[in-house]
Write a sequence for this structure.
């Protein structure tokens, strides 16, 4: 019997897993293993010092080296990362933003060394700075300088790397910070317009070639659990982008107006409790970005089911890859045209989203554009408000999270048994090894050549010459990430982004429990003689500030006076603020896993300032076993992301302050 | 209890030791009646030790004008000239919960290891007028410890009248294109400040437009009774230019004061303070008993207010006497 011809299928999307850790050599082994399993592209994670432009031996890098990605300091690191991997045949995605020009320069110097044809290189540099100020936190320079830098990469790619995506405008992180679909669309498109306007204004790309630049714009989206709405969101994105390309930039070729996007599905909604449920969440979220052919993602990376618990293992990543492969190769999804074509229901939903997103986009453009709306705090304030709304909905049960605020009872999971021990952990020795590798490199290189290259970079920066060419020369001469970034810092300065918490409106529906909190804050304040004053500190390079922001807003609504100075503070800065502000309690938020180094340093700073008895509370992912390794006398409470009941956290802060000051509130316990 | 046994070190304060300053601020902000005597004792000591060449500068203007960023620049200028700097920033409190987000500190770029700089954030509480209840108390501490004292008001606009009654020099900061804040000045609701700054002047065209609008204001560039001609200038605190000119204008204003004139101004400020202390303690009822605000101010104008708490006691004695 003759076999039936299999039906024609669309080619699947690119399947990636976001990875990289410890060291270039270690990550290289991981990449080669993933490529052997059928993964079709690389997605590189860099550690926080690299992303914020510091060498591994900088004071701010302490505790962060190799933690969340690979440390990338020199051309030798890049060589080690791609050992036996030919870059010309790779599609490489790099999550790098503030120092994009530099990391790309390292990659290009490697490509030259491998003898690759630069015009054939494929891949993506994220290079999206605005969302760093809003949610991710790895910015370095002020917004206008950063937009200029992003433009340099785009212009270089236009001239030399025709197949490269020089920028990947992200809505991903906006959603992780609480953006609702309308905000995600409007903020992201405003961001893209801002970048393109700046490139056009630079004026060195002929007008007739500008559509090519527009056509290289790519996007990186998030997909949440409300997957029908998410699918509509993506379709709205496509339509609005098409209109912007036509009307604002006069792009007539439809191919250059295509909304090209990759996806990582939502991590924010993954739960620590009953983590096996996350597999279901990941699959539904994934459907939102592949079901509709006309708005299908070009590449997808799925988080691991246990991401909320720690750094996933190879097996966990493999499971996420298999989900994609099954949908692409076993199901019939790819055999159809767009299955939603002609659906009136979908059409109506899209219209609602599109009208609202268009209005919001116009509001931002009227303000003067994305940079203006960033600098005046508007964008950040909107995100903090939306996120506060989301958390309140979970708290009140209006938003159901299975296994967390509904159907909480469950059988013990055999998957999580012994998980703690089997997590991929980065050995603390890694930091010292990496510092040793870096120092050995520095002593080996030709110091004269390095100085010459840096000098040339300086002159290029002040004369407005070719930054990419000067950076590639630096890479080849042996300049390090920290040196390159310092050169730019000295010209552009550094920036602190608005925290967004200042202008957030007080929460509505305060509720009975909120009134009880306010009451207790007043009582303890009366006894103290001053309003309960709380310092919220984020030490280290970790830029994930959602938790800190939500606590700040809630504490204000509970009647506390809150000092919050934003991200990336040294332990000394936090201790000094605690002293100068005369606070009653310090809250530290750390999500990067570097608490073992940073928390004791803050507490030592407090002691040096005569604040030995000042209570400290911690927020973050802090394993029980680590607590014994920190100064336990000062640490009064530890809150994890699973503690979503913010009112309860407020009550506990009141308890902590009362206890530290010998105040008995027992008569008024709620 | 006396100051020493309460852990308040006058010598430490006068030397701007940060732990001493912090402890004293905690006492001065304390609202428990039990602490009032100590606070009065401390303020009495502090007023005797006010630094003779201090300068109290009020920074006011609408939200978003970049007051904190401007302060950042001023701090750097003053510190590099070797001056000790104290900064008091005031943020509004939520009327519903009484809570406050004290966000100015985040926008001030400073070195935590700098021994000659101290920044304290205060919540305005229910107090209107742009300052906090205890700003004056804390100011008296800073006047004994710092050469240059910067006070940033809440920035809620029209009601920011109190800073004139506290600072030697008032700087009003606007951002380009914020026309409505100027209406108050045009309408004469607000007095023309000593120095008007158009910040964010990196937005060149908009900034120039605001600059010209302000130039047209009646009082700008015209010599006032006290001999000062209000100045108008462009600054970009973000890019870091124009702040030297601002510092120069501030120094000019300070040096213009003949000693007697500055003393009179500060005396008038203390009169206000005593009146507010009185009103706080005895309420409108008490004010009525002494013949109303105007009468009390007149009386205080003749009284010795060197030590505000002593003057308060004298007034209070009259209430008890009546």
């Amino acid at each position: 019997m003759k076999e039936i011809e299999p039906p024609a299928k669309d080619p699947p999307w690119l399947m990636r897993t976001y990875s990289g850790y410890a060291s270039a050599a270690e990550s290289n082994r991981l990449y080669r293993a993933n490529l052997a399993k059928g993964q079709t592209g690389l997605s590189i994670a860099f550690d926080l010092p690299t992303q914020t432009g510091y060498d591994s031996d900088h004071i701010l890098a302490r505790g962060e080296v190799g933690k969340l990605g690979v440390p990338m300091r020199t051309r030798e690191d890049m060589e080690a990362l791609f050992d036996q991997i030919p870059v010309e045949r790779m599609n490489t995605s790099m999550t790098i933003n503030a120092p994009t020009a530099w990391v790309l320069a390292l990659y290009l110097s490697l490509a030259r060394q491998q003898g690759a044809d630069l015009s054939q290189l494929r891949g993506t540099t994220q290079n999206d700075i605005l969302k760093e100020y809003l949610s991710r936190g790895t910015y370095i320079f002020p917004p206008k300088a950063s937009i200029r830098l992003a433009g340099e990469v785009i212009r270089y790619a236009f001239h030399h790397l025709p197949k490269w995506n020089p920028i990947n405008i992200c809505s991903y992180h906006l959603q992780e910070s609480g953006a609702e679909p309308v905000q995600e669309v409007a903020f992201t498109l405003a961001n893209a317009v801002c970048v393109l306007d700046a490139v056009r204004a630079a004026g060195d790309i002929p007008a007739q070639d500008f559509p090519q630049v527009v056509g290289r714009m790519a996007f990186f989206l998030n997909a949440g659990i409300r997957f029908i709405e998410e699918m509509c969101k993506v379709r709205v994105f496509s339509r609005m982008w098409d209109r912007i390309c036509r009307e604002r930039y006069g792009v007539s070729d439809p191919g250059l107006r295509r909304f090209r996007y990759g996806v990582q599905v939502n991590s924010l909604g993954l739960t620590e409790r009953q983590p096996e449920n996350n597999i279901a969440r990941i699959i539904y979220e994934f459907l939102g970005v592949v079901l509709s052919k006309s708005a299908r993602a070009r590449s997808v990376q799925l988080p691991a089911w246990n991401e909320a618990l720690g750094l996933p293992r190879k097996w966990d990543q493999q499971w996420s890859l298999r989900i994609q492969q099954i949908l692409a190769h076993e199901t019939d999804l790819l055999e159809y045209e767009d299955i939603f074509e002609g659906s009136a229901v979908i059409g109506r939903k899209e219209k609602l989203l599109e009208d609202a997103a268009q209005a919001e986009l116009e509001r931002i453009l009227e303000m003067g554009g994305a940079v203006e709306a960033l600098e005046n705090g508007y964008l950040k304030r909107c995100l903090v408000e939306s996120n506060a709304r989301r958390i309140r909905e979970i708290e009140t049960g209006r938003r159901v999270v299975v296994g967390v605020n509904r159907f909480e009872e469950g059988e013990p999971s055999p998957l999580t048994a012994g998980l703690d021990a089997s997590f991929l952990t980065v050995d603390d020795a890694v930091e010292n090894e990496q510092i040793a590798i870096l120092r050995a490199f520095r002593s080996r290189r030709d110091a004269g050549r390095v100085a010459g290259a840096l000098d040339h970079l300086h002159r290029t920066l002040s004369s407005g010459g070719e930054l990419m060419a000067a950076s590639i020369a630096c890479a080849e001469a042996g300049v390090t990430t920290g040196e390159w970034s310092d050169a730019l810092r000295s010209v552009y300065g550094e920036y602190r982004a608005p925290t967004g918490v200042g202008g957030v409106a007080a929460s509505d529906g305060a509720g009975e429990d909120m009134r009880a909190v306010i009451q207790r804050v007043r009582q303890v304040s009366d006894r103290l003689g001053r309003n309960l004053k709380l310092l919220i500190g984020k030490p280290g390079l970790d830029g994930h500030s959602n938790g800190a922001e939500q606590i700040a807003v809630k504490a204000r609504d509970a009647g506390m006076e809150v000092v919050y100075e934003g991200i990336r503070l040294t332990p000394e800065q936090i201790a000094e603020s605690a002293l100068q502000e005369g606070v009653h309690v310090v809250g530290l938020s750390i999500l990067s896993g570097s608490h073992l180094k940073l928390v004791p340093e803050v507490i030592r700073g407090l002691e040096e300032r005569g604040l030995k008895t000042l209570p400290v509370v911690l927020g973050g992912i802090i394993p029980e076993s680590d607590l014994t390794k920190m100064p336990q006398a000062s640490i009064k409470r530890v809150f994890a992301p699973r503690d979503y009941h913010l009112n309860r956290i407020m009550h506990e802060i009141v308890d902590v302050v009362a206890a530290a000051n010998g105040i008995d509130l027992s008569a008024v316990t709620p | 209890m006396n100051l020493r046994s309460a852990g308040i070190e006058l010598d430490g304060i006068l030397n701007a030791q940060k732990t001493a300053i912090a402890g004293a601020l905690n006492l001065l902000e304390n609202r428990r009646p039990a602490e009032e005597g100590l606070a009065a004792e401390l303020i009495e000591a502090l007023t005797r030790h006010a630094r003779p060449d201090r300068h109290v500068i009020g920074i006011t203007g609408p939200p978003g004008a970049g007051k904190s960023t401007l302060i950042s620049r001023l701090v750097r200028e003053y510190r590099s000239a070797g001056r000790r700097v104290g900064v008091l920033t005031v943020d509004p409190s939520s009327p519903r919960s009484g809570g406050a987000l004290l966000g100015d500190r985040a926008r001030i770029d400073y070195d935590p290891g700098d021994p000659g700089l101290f920044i304290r954030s205060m919540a305005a509480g229910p107090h209107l007028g742009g300052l906090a209840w205890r700003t004056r108390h804390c100011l008296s501490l800073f006047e004994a410890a710092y050469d240059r004292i910067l006070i940033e008001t809440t920035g809620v606009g029209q009601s920011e009248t109190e800073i004139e009654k506290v600072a030697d020099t008032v700087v009003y900061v606007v951002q380009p294109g914020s026309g409505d804040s100027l209406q108050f000045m045009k309408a004469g609701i607000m007095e023309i400040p000593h120095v008007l700054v158009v910040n964010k002047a990196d937005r060149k065209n908009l900034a120039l437009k605001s600059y010209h609008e302000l130039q047209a204001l009646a009082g700008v560039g015209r010599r006032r009774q006290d001999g000062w001609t209000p100045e108008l200038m462009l600054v970009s605190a973000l890019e870091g230019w124009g702040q030297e000119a601002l510092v120069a204008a501030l120094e000019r204003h300070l040096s213009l004061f003949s000693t007697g004139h500055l003393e009179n101004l500060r005396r008038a400020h203390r009169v206000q303070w005593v009146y507010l202390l009185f009103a706080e303690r005895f309420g409108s009822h008490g004010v009525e008993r002494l013949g109303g605000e105007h009468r009390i101010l007149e009386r205080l104008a003749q009284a010795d207010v060197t030590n505000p708490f002593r003057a308060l006691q004298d007034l209070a004695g009259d209430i008890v006497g009546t």
Observations:
- The interface with chain B takes residues 142, 376-377, 493, 496, 499, 501-502, 504, 506, 510, 518, 521-522, 525, 529-531, 552-553, 555-566, 570, 572-573, 575-577, 579-582, 609-610 of chain A (CB under 8 Å).
- Residues 14-376+411-422 of chain A form a domain with the TIM Barrel fold (CATH 3.20.20.240).
- Residues 13 and 121 of chain A are 19 Å apart (CA to CA).
- The mean pLDDT of chain A is 91.
